Amino acid sequence: STNMDDIDKLMAGEQADMLWIDPPYNADNDNVDDSAFRNFLRDLFSNCTAVMKAGSPFYIAHADSEGYNFRGAAQESGLDVKQCLIWVNNSIAFGRQDHHWQHEPILYGWKPGAAHKWYGEFNKSTVIDEQPKVNDLDRSELMNLVRELRNTLATTVIREDKPKANGDHPTMKPIRLIGLHLKNSTRRGDVVIDFCGGSGSTLIACEKLGRKARLCELSPTYAQVIVERWQEFTGK
């Protein structure tokens, strides 16, 4: 992800319409000193910026404890941070801090140089049109409908359940979360980059919505997870 030669091979002359990325949070096994982590983020985001079209939106998942470095590195690499979105999930991270974590922030903005694209609607009437069928829905379907209604308004707060813990990846992001951002910021056929591929959720979200995903992943183990998730999802 920090090697531009690898990025050039991946992109093959294409430019990205959007960035969705979930870099390491500088915790546990990934922990390095503050300066080294800031430099890593700057190199990573600079490579992202280099292959993004002007006006391309970005979504950067991160830890609040490293917010200073994430925001600073994004700005230093040419990205214009506009808002911080809050992902409220169904899992509480118990620890020794005064307040237990139940959210993750996501930086949102775009690469300067052109007007950014926004395709989201503030009131999705398609959900309201389905209201007469409510009596026919089971509990799971009703819960999904409530979730859709809560996310109907394009606010800075997003409610989406965290994937259940599994052996594929410790910080797997929900496909629906990424899909919501894809719908708001891209159209079918657009190129979406994620240079910290992780579990491959960005790839699956793009596959579901007809976007073109371009991923990098350093770990051979997680690269294999990405391939296997794609194969399972597509049957190919």
CATH class equals Alpha Beta
Compute the CA-based radius of gyration. 18 Å
Oligomeric state of the chains in view: single chain
Q: What's the overall geometry?
A: globular
Mean pLDDT: 85
CATH architecture: 3-Layer(aba) Sandwich
Query: Largest beta sheet: what is the strand line-up?
Result: 5-3-4-2-1-6-7
Helix content: 25-40%
Whole-number count of domains: 1
* Unreliable sequence segments: 123-132
CATH superfamily: Vaccinia Virus protein VP39
Distance between the termini: 27 Å
Number of helices: 8
Q: Enter the CATH topology name.
A: Rossmann fold
Note the run of SSEs as H and E: HEHEHEEHHEHEHEH
Largest sheet: 7 strands, mixed
The tally of strands reads 7
Category from helices, strands and their pairing:
alpha/beta
Query: Approximately how much beta-strand content do the residues carry?
Result: 15-25%
Could you explain the architecture of this structure?
The chain is an alpha/beta fold and 236 residues long. It has a single domain (4-234), classed as Rossmann fold, CATH 3.40.50. The chain is built from eight helices and seven strands; from the N terminus they run αβαβαββααβαβαβα. Strands 5-3-4-2-1-6-7 form a seven-stranded mixed sheet. Strand 3 (80-93) and strand 4 (101-110) form a beta hairpin. Helix 6 crosses helix 7 and helix 7 (201-209) runs parallel beside helix 8 (220-234). The longest helix is centred in the N-terminal third of the chain and has 17 residues, at 34-50.
